[in-house]
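Input sequence (257 aa), recorded before submission:
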Amino acid sequence: MLQDINDVTSAHLASHDTVVHLAAVAHTHATSDDDIWRCNVDGTRKLHRAALEAGVGHFIFISSIKALAESSDMPLTPDSMLAPEDVYGRSKHAAETYLAEANGPATSIVRIPLVYGDGVKGNFHTLERVAKLPLPLPFGGLTNKRSYVCVDNLCGAIEAIIRKPPEGYRVFHVADRETLSITEVLTIVRNAAGRSPSLFRLPLPLLTILCELVLGRDRTFKLLGKLEMDIRETTRTLDWQPSITMSRYFDARSKSN
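Predicted structure, token format:
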């Protein structure tokens, strides 16, 4: 079994028509910027070259909306100007740029927001842990709409892209249909657990200071900022629709537990 994406060769991809590239390293305290770049950029180049040598017909790269921006007052389309703000976003941007300019198989770039689903880790796992605290929370009345994607919706979109590969290079934005504020996300998670939301409102400047003390400035910015994705072009092109909402997902999960 391969332990490092940079060890891949064309022999690993022989007889495959499509490669879906999901491997990535996000920034953590235990990860250096060099490690992020080595996996997300160098590893993507190596995998793409191996796919070309193996005669793969379709290369699907799972990117991130962070390749475009960390926040936006307008919904971001596939053609929005790229302005990544951290090393992870810049690494995804660099990988996208390489794939756009490289010769090779048909290439689909799939930009996604924060993913939720069974076994989720990272920022959404942190958000769930906050929601499960047996305390009133000061997140009432927030209106910062953000896009999310259920892992089942993401899988459905990838299947649709495999069935309908582009000619050349194309960017797809994949997310749930609905956009939600942090207030709405916390309400959904708490309601699914059979609890009252118990959210009260703090003035935004005070809430920001409190969150920065607990979570740090970077995570507070991501938590309280706006970041919506426009998926209309994706749904039209693929004749695909995200079928699961966050409410439906958490309700189903609560009933199965």
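Checked by second reader. The chain has a mean pLDDT of 89.
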